[in-house]
Amino acid sequence: MSDISLHFEWWEWLIVSPVLGWPGLLAGGAIGAALWPRRRLLGGVLGAIIGNLVVFAVRIMLK
Predict the structure, then answer these.
(1) Of the candidates 51, 4, 45, 3, the residue with the CA atom closest to the CA atom of residue 25
(2) Helix axes 10-20, 22-35, angle to 10 degrees
(3) Tens digit of pLDDT for each residue in 11-47?
(4) What would the mean pLDDT of 57-61 be, rounded to a whole number?
(5) Does the pLDDT value for residue 1 go beyond 70?
(6) What is the end-to-end Cα distance of the chain in Å, rounded?
(7) I need a surface site. Which of 17, 37, 58, 59 has the fewest CB within 10 A?
(8) What value, to the nearest 5°, has the Cα angle with vertex 62 and ends 23 and 22?
């Protein structure tokens, strides 16, 4: 049994999230822009953020 443990702060997880959640960043941006045609830029940005966090959370939970 090892006594080594890793502890990360919330902001460190946010720094790593684009590395692991990049597919959600792309897909969420495209879907958000398509679903909000009046505000494509805002929809794309919000979709990208949400998609990134969802894919990142799924990858973290499955490991």
Answers:
(1) 51
(2) 80
(3) 998 899 999 999 999 999 999 999 999 999 999 999 9
(4) 92
(5) no
(6) 20
(7) 37
(8) 15
